[in-house]
Amino acid sequence: MQTIRYPRIPASRWLALALLLISAAPAGANEPLEQGKALATSGSGGVLACATCHGSQGEGNAPAGFPFLASQGASYLAEQLENLASGKRANPIMQPIAKAMTAAQIQAVSAYYAQLPAPVDKTKLGAHVDLYPAQEQLGAWIANRGDWNNNIPACIQCHGPGGAGVGESFPALAGLPAGYIRSQLQAWRDGTRDPGPLALMGEIAKRMTDAQINATADYFATLPASLNHPAVAQGSKP
Ligand code: HEC
Ligand code: HEC
Q: In terms of Cα–Cα distance, which of 83, 207, 103, 92 is closest to 155?
């Protein structure tokens, strides 16, 4: 009778194989994030690489008017992509891109951007809430105090001190391009952007004047840069 000879595998090989299996587990767990990153940086099929317009770290491109995506809530981003694809939120640049994405790609890329660091230092923003702006500083006034005669609440009540964003559903505003903020408020007034949870923004935007929209957009767009002003850095107002 013949004896079966098993190939002898050196112990070092077993160890290498075991390590390979162990390291494969966490890689599998991060798969959607990896897919999201690949889509963001390289695109796929009909989907343009998001980084082309939204920046390599999702930091946006203020001069071009492209919003940042980094650190915004994953469910907020996914919902926007679904609305952009369906036309509930109208935009000629984003619609074809969002439409070309699968549901899984939308979830993956939203999760990827949500965990990237915010382009703005949120601790700085919160530390410099301006609760007593001069009334002629219209943008700071609306953002921090609102306009109660016209039923407009202070933006920071929902968007957090300094417009840093709150949780998954209230996006950060600080550092978004002024033109972008303005066009979103106008879109809600015109009904070309879905009013979102409880139609909160649709109602608020409809009550704002053009001057209030412009001033508030400028305030949130320049807030991060104004925090670097030496007077602000020392703890007072510029
Ligand atoms: C050619 C430029 C371009 C590319 C490429 C692009 N975007 Fe955009 N994106 C825009 C513009 C412009 C807007 C603003 C739309 C508006 O004004 O409503 C926008 C808005 C968005 C928004 C809404 C942000 C918010 O704060 O509500 C999301 C989410 C988004 N893009 C995700 C993506 C993803 C994910 C990709 C890649 C798969 C991508 N974009 C690729 C130009 C681009
Ligand atoms: C009662 C709560 C509430 C208040 C107050 C509020 N917002 Fe919002 N805002 C929201 C919600 C919720 C969203 C997300 C809408 C969505 O999911 O489409 C939002 C979204 C936005 C966006 C879109 C951001 C992006 O990335 O596209 C802008 C711009 C905005 N708000 C501006 C303002 C301004 C300016 C004020 C003050 C005049 C304000 N908001 C006050 C709840 C609020």
A: 207
